[in-house]
């Protein structure tokens, strides 16, 4: 059988499949490095009990996943709370006792004291939620 088309117009099955795979991969690669805006969830209403003070290590933090919060104790008796969603791509940060709030998804680290970025790729601090201690329990406030 002869083909009347010039050879420059013929595509092999392999080249068609290869070009399709390349085109399909481009959006996945392009989306990998982009930061989507991460919006912190609405903080819980005032007087919501988060956890016992004894559950938060001094110089560390404990995540309250159900409320999307992380509670820190930067120094003995000082408690802070922040959104537990990393501002880089929205992964939940992890509990720790090493002096920082870690996000294990991409390596960001945040301050226990003010939620500021210590190490990127995150560029925006964690949003703070006002808390107080009542009878050994960290509780949200209206402040």
From TrEMBL:
What SUPFAM superfamilies does the annotation carry?
ISP domain (SSF50022)
Keywords attached to this Swiss-Prot or TrEMBL record, sorted alphabetically, are: 2Fe-2S, Disulfide bond, Iron, Iron-sulfur, Metal-binding
- One Gene Ontology term of the molecular function aspect: monooxygenase activity
- Domain Rieske, residue spans: 48-140
Keyword Ion transport among UniProt keywords: no
Fetch the InterPro entries from UniProt.
Rieske_2Fe-2S, Rieske_2Fe-2S_sf, Rieske_Fe-S_prot, Rieske_Fe-S_prot_C, TAT_signal
**Swiss-Prot/TrEMBL cofactor(s):** [2Fe-2S] cluster
Gene Ontology cellular component list:
membrane
| Task performed by this protein | Iron-sulfur subunit of the cytochrome bc1 complex, an essential component of the respiratory electron transport chain required for ATP synthesis. The bc1 complex catalyzes the oxidation of menaquinol and the reduction of cytochrome c in the respiratory chain. The bc1 complex operates through a Q-cycle mechanism that couples electron transfer to generation of the proton gradient that drives ATP synthesis.
Q: What is this protein called?
A: Cytochrome bc1 complex Rieske iron-sulfur subunit
Q: Which organism is it from?
A: Nocardioides daphniae
């Amino acid at each position: 059988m002869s083909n009347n088309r010039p050879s420059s117009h013929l595509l092999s099955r392999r080249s068609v499949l290869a070009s399709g795979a390349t085109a399909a991969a481009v959006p996945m690669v392009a989306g990998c490095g982009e930061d989507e805006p991460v919006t912190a969830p609405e903080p819980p209403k005032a007087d919501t009990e988060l956890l016992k003070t004894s559950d938060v290590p001094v110089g560390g933090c404990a995540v309250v996943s159900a409320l999307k919060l992380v509670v820190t104790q930067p120094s003995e008796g000082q408690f802070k709370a922040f959104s537990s969603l990393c501002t880089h791509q929205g992964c939940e940060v992890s509990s720790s006792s090493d002096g920082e709030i870690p996000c294990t998804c991409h390596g960001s680290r945040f301050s226990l004291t003010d939620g500021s970025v210590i190490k990127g790729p995150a560029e925006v601090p964690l949003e703070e939620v006002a808390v107080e201690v009542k009878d050994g329990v960290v509780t949200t406030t209206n402040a």
